[in-house]
Amino acid sequence: MLSIDTGYVTRVLQDLVRINSVNPVLDPAAPGERAIAEYVGEAMSALGADVRYHEPKAGRVSVVATLGGSAPRWTWSACPSRSQASCATAACTAAGRST
Fold it and tell me: Which of 10, 42, 46, 95 sits 20 to 30 Å CA-CA off 67?
């Protein structure tokens, strides 16, 4: 049975909420999603995922993380249109973080 490390999930969610990732289309002075994409990419890389970044427009960075193993592969993608909370939950669930 899969066990979720709720402490880890809580820390990730808190970190994600603190990162300013306002869409520059909504506010030209906003930083965009680069910092949040890099945070998620680094977290997924630390779990052994293959991480790729895509930046179709300046400041609009998406991250794709793929985990391998003996079970079917999980691929997780964070794009600017997803909420920060759903991104963190998807990342931790796909990674199989356990206590």
Answer: 10
Other beta carbons within 10 angstroms of residue 6's beta carbon come to: 11
Cβ-based neighbours of 47, under 8 Å, separated by 6 or more: 67, 95, 97
What would the pLDDT profile of 9-58 be if each residue is shown by its tens digit? 999 999 999 999 998 889 999 998 999 999 999 999 998 999 999 988 88
- Enter the pTM of the model: 0.67
Between 4 and 14, where is the model more confident?
Answer: 14
Distance CA 96, CA 29 (A): 37
Show the tokens assigned to 13. Answer: 């969610």
> In this structure, what DSSP letter does residue 73 have?
P
d(CA 38, CA 15): 12
